[in-house]
Design a protein that fits this description.
The chain has 3 helices and 4 strands; from the N terminus they run βαβαββα. By secondary structure, the chain is of the alpha+beta class.
Length: 102
Amino acid sequence: MELQNEQKAKVKLIEVGGSTCGVCKMLQPMVDKVITMFNKDELEYEYVYGDTDEGKAIMEENSIGAISKVPTFIFIVDGEEKERFDGGITLTGLRDKIKNYL
């Protein structure tokens, strides 16, 4: 009997921040640390400034609607938005959320 390989879902985490957002700057070292815990083949990560043309283009490309607060974290699985939350988060909290989608 032939075993078929299960194809893993493509998981993307997009963090939308603002160029003048103090909380975004404060959280970034922690977010960077969490992201390095995962293989790039498992998780694609992008940080975008929602208040720049480049950031707006990336948001449009990923069908991300309006953002009311920054930072906002958006999980996209196989091209579909699965979860969105804004504000601060702990290292453990972010790591656990990522693990839920992998």
